[in-house]
């Protein structure tokens, strides 16, 4: 347990920038009435300089009047945010520091300083409690503080703060391929083979043989990966518009072996059909962003060059992005993106599992520790990706539908905002993942 400074009122006590930031980040829940949240009797925990890894966490039980906001009556917080004392733990929890801790991935940042970037692979965080990523804990804390403030004022939440914000799912498509390349053949064949071995180890011989057959078929078959029209027609049917992230690198064969293997093969500068397609989509309401090269995750100059190449080809500004393969460093990537002229990044998620990487479904500004203020860039968490359902887990159709419903339900339950990735090429017959996207769209439409 941590020691704390108890502050029964915040009226005459200066508020540290980190605490003001935590409240401002969630302003959609209190609509410019942040002062009411800051006046809540929340203790200020004296947080240690060194983050314990893996981070110890604990469920804090909420009072009876807020149990519906919680998960089985409780919210998950880092243990160090709970002050010592005899009163109920929820009164001793520094909720504002918990928000700050989650939003800025303090535990992950500490891990990165010791071991380097994990580049969005959760399996590298060995021994970490996966429940950290299972819910939008920060949004649930916001709902709790909103209700607590209303009780303190003796009025309803609606009267004090107005209606809750509308949940929003941002549909995105990373365009890694517009034709079937050797790199794509090898990558997806490897996934099929891996799943075949995993099924065999589980004694599922029939499933293993089926996956080996799929691997061989994928390796040698021909297919059309130009799926833009199929996606836009489907989204029009449901009344949606989405974001397409486009590679801005040079493409072609005159690149390193790593670039040939891991980066897209096409070049927007030399592909008039692609330029026309994207310009048409933009005119009809779809958003175009940049999908940086594999090695650009910390290189502002390379990012800027790729952004400018894309803008020159399309004839309009590009201000949003997502890093290819979700290559990401807490210390370097967002700083590089800001220098390169971006306003929004949607990289924040995991390659190998769905989840809320910073415990939140919210578009927000991350914190700059050097200047002690929020960064100019906004980030939009990515919660679910097609490969989570098809490559990294061996799921049946019904199990995939259950997973889709679970993650969407959480976003809607907390009135949050998050993005989903469905790669453009996987709508082809090669992959056969179009049904999953149709299920996703239908589920969102039913909840909207």
Overview of this structure, please?
InterPro entries: Glyco_hydro/deAcase_b/a-brl (IPR011330). Helices cover 40% and strands 12% of the residues. With 448 residues, the protein is of the alpha/beta class. The protein has two domains: 4-161, no CATH class; 168-180 and 222-447, Alpha-Beta Barrel (TIM Barrel). The strands form four sheets. It has an eight-stranded parallel sheet. The protein has a two-stranded antiparallel sheet with strand order 1-2. A two-stranded antiparallel ribbon has the order 3-4. The longest helix has 20 residues, at 182-201. 42% of the residues are buried.
Low-confidence spans: 5-13
Helices and strands: which structural class?
alpha/beta
| Tally of alpha and pi helices | 16
Q: Count the strands? A: 14
CATH homologous superfamily annotation of the largest domain = Glycoside hydrolase/deacetylase
Question: Which strand order spans the largest sheet, edge to edge or round the barrel?
Answer: 12-9-8-7-6-5-14-13
Task: State Rg.
Answer: 23 Å
**Could you say what the CATH topology of the largest domain is called?**
TIM Barrel
| Mean residue pLDDT | 94
Helix proportion: 25-40%
CATH top level of the largest domain is Alpha Beta
């Amino acid at each position: 347990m941590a020691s704390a400074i108890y502050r029964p009122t915040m009226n005459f006590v200066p508020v540290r920038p980190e605490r003001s930031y935590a409240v401002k980040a969630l302003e959609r829940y209190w609509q410019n009435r942040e002062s009411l949240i800051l006046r809540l009797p929340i203790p200020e925990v004296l947080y240690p300089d060194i983050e314990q890894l893996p981070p110890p966490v604990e469920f804090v039980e909420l009072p009876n009047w807020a149990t519906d906001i919680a998960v089985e009556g409780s919210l998950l917080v880092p243990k160090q945010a709970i002050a010592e004392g005899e009163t109920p733990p929820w009164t001793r929890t520094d909720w504002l520091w918990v928000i700050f801790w989650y939003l800025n991935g303090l535990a992950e940042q500490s891990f990165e300083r010791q071991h380097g970037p994990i580049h969005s692979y959760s399996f590298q965080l060995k021994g970490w409690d996966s429940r950290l990523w299972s819910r939008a804990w920060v949004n649930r804390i916001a709902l709790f503080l909103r209700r607590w403030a209303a009780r303190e004022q003796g009025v309803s939440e609606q009267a004090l703060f107005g209606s809750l914000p509308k949940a929003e799912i941002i549909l995105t498509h990373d365009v890694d391929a517009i034709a079937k390349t050797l790199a794509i053949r090898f990558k997806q064949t490897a996934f099929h083979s891996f799943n075949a071995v995993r099924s065999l180890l589980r004694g599922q011989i029939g499933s293993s043989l089926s996956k080996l057959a799929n691997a061989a078929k994928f390796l040698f078959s021909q297919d059309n990966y130009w799926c833009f029209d199929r996606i836009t027609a489907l989204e029009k049917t449901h009344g949606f518009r989405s974001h397409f992230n486009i590679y801005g690198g040079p493409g072609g064969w005159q690149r390193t072996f790593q670039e040939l293997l891991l980066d897209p093969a096409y070049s927007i500068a030399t592909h008039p059909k692609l330029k026309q397609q994207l310009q048409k989509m933009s005119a009809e309401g779809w958003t175009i962003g940049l999908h940086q090269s594999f090695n650009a995750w910390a290189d502002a100059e390379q990012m800027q060059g790729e952004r400018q190449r894309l803008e020159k080809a399309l004839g309009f500004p590009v201000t949003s992005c997502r890093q290819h393969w979700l290559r990401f460093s807490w210390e370097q990537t967002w700083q590089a993106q800001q220098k390169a002229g971006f306003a929004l990044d949607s990289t924040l998620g995991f390659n190998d599992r769905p989840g809320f990487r910073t415990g939140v479904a919210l578009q927000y500004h991350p914190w700059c520790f050097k200047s002690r203020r929020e960064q100019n860039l906004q980030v939009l968490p990515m919660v679910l990706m097609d490969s989570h359902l098809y490559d990294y887990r061996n799921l049946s159709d019904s199990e995939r539908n259950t997973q889709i419903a679970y993650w969407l339900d959480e976003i809607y339950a907390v009135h949050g905002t998050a993005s989903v990735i469905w790669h453009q090429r996987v709508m082809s017959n090669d992959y056969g993942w179009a049904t999953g996207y149709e299920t996703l769209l239908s589920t969102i439409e039913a909840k909207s």
